[in-house]
Write a structure and sequence with these properties.
alpha/beta; Beta Polymerase, domain 2; Rossmann fold; 6-stranded parallel β-sheet; 42% helix; 4pyrrol_synth_GluRdtase_N
């Protein structure tokens, strides 16, 4: 099968027997829905980067996936890449690997029928996230569905499933209190920074990127006492709009190395086809600084060269390093999971009843 996109060397690995779907093993489901993907539970960051949806690649991926299903929805976040399909033709795992051009199935999961619907509902409710109950995923699922609708890639089944997942996710959050005092990726990043400096009072933060995650991170940094904020982005206008919101300075990406010596905290939350910061740049910035520099890359793919970690005075972290902070906050919300699962069950049951009525008609 010809790969639709090839941008990294193939990841080699064997496929566990449990994940192989042969025609003689497949089960016919009344709910003709499937999801295949990987996330922070099944794949480390360097593998998740292989399946990240880069700028300009989405249409090629979708063109390949449309050959394998009547309806297609692509969900890509910093911690997951998933394809939801209705009217599946053939093996969903092969469709996914063929689109990305990598042997990924050692890290892939596949759910079909009711299990696929249950997975989508769990994702939208934040129950499958690195940060249990986080709210950002709700908006990401909504945008993924709306984008698929606008492209004409969805019809009755995926539309109903996505609508049901979003409505059920809201119920879970409002009725269980699952998102009360929830730790987000952004707030966990700020906690890591506190661990380096003790206090962020009077510090200067530089953030590369101007999207939703960047804004959330800057909000937490301001609350933690950061005095000066610098927003660097490829599009200077977007940097200016975010800087105005948080009371900071906006600069074009060409100014990154010039401004870097001022930064105590560097947050990378953007997409780029290459590393925007390398060890030499950080080493130059630290020359003459008395204080260390904290850097965290919450981009997927990463845009800070991992070799920066070897620079004296530089403390580099990535998404996988946030897990300890996230886990420490988990115990207070685990008791809410049975109620959340009951609400999810009601939502999936509604979808099953709708589908049975539709097939009967």
């Amino acid at each position: 099968m010809t790969a639709a996109v090839q941008h990294l060397p193939a990841f080699t690995g064997t496929c566990p027997t449990a994940l192989r779907l042969r025609p003689e093993q497949s089960t016919v489901h009344a709910l003709d829905l499937a999801v295949v993907g990987l996330n922070h539970k099944t794949a480390p960051l360097n593998v998740r980067e292989r399946a990240a949806v880069r700028d300009g690649e989405q249409e090629a991926l979708l063109r390949h996936l449309r050959q394998h299903a009547h309806e297609v929805m692509l969900l890509s976040t910093c911690n997951r890449t998933e394809v939801y399909m209705a009217g599946v033709q053939g093996d969903p795992l092969s469709a996914f690997e063929g689109a990305w051009g990598h042997a990924l199935r050692q890290h892939l999961y596949v759910h079909q029928g009711v299990q696929a619907a249950d997975h989508l509902y769990r994702v939208a409710a934040g129950l499958d996230s690195l940060v249990l109950g986080e709210t950002q995923i709700q908006g990401q699922v909504k945008r993924a569905w709306q984008d698929a609708q606008q492209r004409g890639d969805t019809a009755a089944l995926l539309n109903k499933a996505a609508q049901g997942a979003l409505a059920t996710g809201k119920r879970v959050r409002h009725e269980t209190g699952l998102n009360d005092n929830v730790v987000s990726v952004s707030s966990a990043a700020v906690e890591l920074a506190r661990g380096i400096f003790g206090s962020l009072e009077g510090r200067t933060a530089l953030i590369v990127g101007a999207g939703e995650t960047a804004e959330l991170t800057l909000t937490h940094l301001r609350a933690a006492g950061v005095k000066d904020v610098i927003v660097v982005n490829r599009t200077e206008e977007r940097a200016r709009l975010l800087a105005e919101k948080v009371g900071g300075r906006a600069c074009a990406s060409e100014m990154l190395h010039t401004l870097l010596p001022e930064a105590d905290v560097v947050i990378a939350s953007s997409s780029a086809p290459h590393y925007v910061l390398k060890p030499q740049g950080v080493q130059d910035a630290l020359r003459g600084r008395a204080a260390p520099m904290f850097l965290i890359d919450i981009s997927v793919p990463r845009i800070l060269d991992p070799a920066i970690a070897d620079v004296p005075g530089a403390h580099l972290y990535n998404l996988d390093d946030l897990e300890d902070i996230v886990q420490s906050n988990l115990s207070t919300r685990v008791s809410l999971l049975p109620q959340a699962q009951e609400i999810l069950g009601e939502g999936v049951a509604d979808l099953k009843r709708w589908n049975a009525f539709r097939e009967a008609r």
